[in-house]
Amino acid sequence: MRINVLMPVFSTPVEWVSEAVNSIIAQTHNDHNLIIVDDNNPRGVLTDYLYGLTEVCHCINIVRKNSNEGIAAALDFGLQYCKGDLIVRMDADDIARPDLLKRHDEFFTAHADRHICGVQIHLFNNHMEWFSNHPSEVSRSRAFAMLGHWFVNHPGIAFRKKDITDIGGYGAIPSTLAEDYALWVKFLLAGYTIYNQEEVLMDYRVHPKSFSFAPDRKAPEWHEFLATQKQLLYESRN
Question: pTM score, two decimals?
Answer without folding.
Answer: 0.93
